[in-house]
Amino acid sequence: MSRVVTKAVIPAAGFGTRMLPFTKAVPKELIPLVDTPVLQYVVEEAVDAGAEDILIIISPGKEAIKEHFMPAEKLEERLKSSGKDELFAGIKKINTLANISYVYQYELNGLGDAVALAADFAGTDPVMVLLGDTVMDSAVSRGVSAQLVSVYEEYRSSVIALTRVPQEKISSYGIAAGNMIAERVMQLSDLVEKPSPADAPSDFAVAARYLFTPEIFAALRDTCPGLHGEIQLTDAVKKLLLTEKVFGCLIAGKRYDLGRVAGFVSANVEFALRRPELQESLGRQIMDILKKFNIKDL
Asked: If 162 and its partner were Cys, which of 38, 123, 203, 248 is the partner (CB 3.0–4.6 Å)?
């Protein structure tokens, strides 16, 4: 098994029903965060963590994802000839981020089933898995996937991103059980899918990023359909725990779930306010909106 992590898998086959009607024609992974598709942020995070080869798992009707990462010669020529050098460089960069390939998940049988489609791509190498509709904003110089790579390099075993969640949200997530063995590192003993707060073993929730050894694919093959008749990745990780150590990395950063309307709107406001050219005018507009609806305190 390779010690260097150079492969990443991005599941992006889901319908995005929470964002209808927009996602009827546009993949949820291409919803913009300000002016950049969510999926581009995810690909860039994988590349920053060392990924050279990326497999994106799509379903029929989501070919726009392929188009986004393909060269657009006429657009590039137009931008270059009109002197829009900064835009030209940005568009050109999209085509050269990594070696990107695709595989179709024809039946949406769960996240575990989607990841299982990457077995041949991964081969005998470790592989990052990044959910395509979730942006992770790092609070340190290393991105979230790069943080997982650091833990993998230390322990040479599978790693799952974890983040703390408030008690009232515990029942919405897979929750980790285990012991802290280092700063921000937990050795997992179990994963509990959407427990009640009273039954939860911790407040550490699985956070949309994983780094697996190739043994995950044997675990997936042995995993029976679970909730809604789907192959659950959480169930496969529980099987993986029987054959190897699995670690959790309490990430330094924030998770943005862009597959939900409230998360999408708030993330766009936050990311836009970070941009100096938008901050002042947008800030004034937000204040005017709050006054219009008589919102003084939340």
From this structure: 248
